[in-house]
Specification:
Helix content: 40-55%
Number of domains: 1
Distance between the termini: 31 Å
Strand content: 15-25%
Number of helices: 15
Radius of gyration: 21 Å
Number of strands: 16
């Protein structure tokens, strides 16, 4: 896979990259689509895009697959069918997540990492990411990753490095391990970096995102090639249900260094009792839809009366017709939001190529201006972008 810089925005960490992967090429910024739920139809219609094959591996599922060969074969066949269908026109990224309950014992972590590699490393996928982790004891993360890499690299699979949601010390240990594997194997991708935002975004996760940017810059300096930052589990907010309108921080991710915005699979951890209580209170019309004119997510009930959304009124009416079917409404809203976000990222890409003032375009959005935290952190990212360009000029002068 080869990555080429197409265009950079002035004063922002926003750029357009061309990803060449043999069969075709993809241009960023872009939204990855998943082949399930409301995004399924969009994914199969997509051309020259990015398809994420997400594999959730809970402790119970892993135990089931390890002890039943028929289930394992069926599991691997399903992954093969999805990859084969998705790769015809798009870049395919396989992303797995190892999930355990708190304090659940995990035996033989190295062996577990090898098994996860055997399950997920499909030879026809363009990118296979090192797994994400959810509630896994950090003491065993290193061993799992080592087992995964040893097995994956023995099959000559192209593996993208991942920065999971773990402590800073664990991240540092993983980076030291990654450096060792980079020096030993050409199968490690040094131009593609996956980062887990855990159901949040680079604006909310400011320090974590800066860590990701630092790693990406070090890779770019070492190998003299742009590094694609793949943002896994990106979402506009974890507390959106409290408000009728919230800023589209997920969309702003493309302005602060995330090249591919991938769908969120994380749910807010809560007890069964609280989950049932919230489920009873949330109505289908409370689901939020994306308004790209304002860079806001707005409750469906409120959006139906917004004049600014008249051009999408027919789609909203279609959702409104199915209000009695909560599951269908959720699916339609998911499809609507993914489609709007994907189209806006394509629009941003065109503005970049035309040398439009992308900074002014971003700051003209109501959802950006009204979010004080977003504005404050956006200014920090802008300063970072300016400092990078200054250092490049100094290097060129010397």
């Amino acid at each position: 896979m080869k990555i080429k810089l197409v265009k950079e925005a002035e004063g922002l960490l926003c750029r357009s990259l061309e990803i060449n992967y043999g069969r075709n090429s993809t241009i960023t910024p872009i939204r990855a689509l998943k082949i399930k739920g409301g995004e399924r139809k969009l994914a199969y219609e997509l051309r020259n895009g990015v398809i994420e094959v997400y594999i959730q591996l809970t402790s119970s599922r892993l135990k089931e697959l390890r002890t039943d060969i028929n289930r394992q074969v069926d599991f691997e066949n399903r992954i093969s069918r999805v990859v084969e269908k998705a790769r015809r026109h798009n870049l395919v990224v396989i992303l797995s997540s190892i999930e355990y309950r708190p304090n659940e014992e995990l035996r033989n972590p190295y062996d577990l990492g090898q098994f996860v590699s055997e399950l997920t490393c499909h030879p026809k996928a363009d990118v296979v990411c090192v797994p994400l982790f959810y509630k896994v004891n950090e003491k065993v993360v290193d061993s799992i990753v080592k087992g995964f890499l040893d097995s994956a690299l023995s099959t000559h699979c192209k593996v993208a490095l991942t920065i999971p949601k773990v402590s800073r010390d664990t991240k540092a240990r993983l980076l030291r391990m990654y450096q060792k594997y980079i020096n030993e194997s050409e199968c490690i991708m040094t131009n593609f970096l996956c980062a887990d935002y855990d159901g949040s975004n680079p604006i909310t996760k400011y320090s974590e995102h800066n860590f990701v940017l630092n790693v990406a810059e070090r890779l770019e300096d070492a190998f003299e090639e742009p590094v694609v930052v793949y943002g896994a589990n990106v979402k506009y907010s974890k507390t959106a249900r409290k408000y009728e309108e919230v800023s589209a921080r997920d969309l702003v991710s493309s302005y602060v260094g995330v090249d591919i915005i991938a769908p969120n699979h994380r749910r807010i951890p809560m007890t069964r009792e609280i989950a049932e209580l919230i489920r009873d209170k949330i109505k289908p019309e409370d689901r939020k839809i994306l308004n790209v004119l304002k860079y806001k997510y707005i409750a469906l009930s409120k959006a139906l009366g917004k004049k600014s959304l008249r051009e999408e009124h027919s789609k909203l009416i279609l959702i409104q017709k199915h209000m009695s079917n909560e599951k269908l409404v959720y699916s339609l809203v998911e499809q609507y939001n993914a489609d709007k976000l994907l189209r806006e990222l394509i629009h941003i890409r065109l503005l970049l190529i035309k040398d439009e003032d992308l900074r002014s375009y971003l700051l003209s959005k109501e959802g950006v201006r009204e979010d004080e935290v977003l504005m404050e952190r956006l200014e920090r990212y802008m300063r970072r972008a300016s400092n990078i360009k200054k250092s490049k000029r100094i290097t060129e002068f010397m």
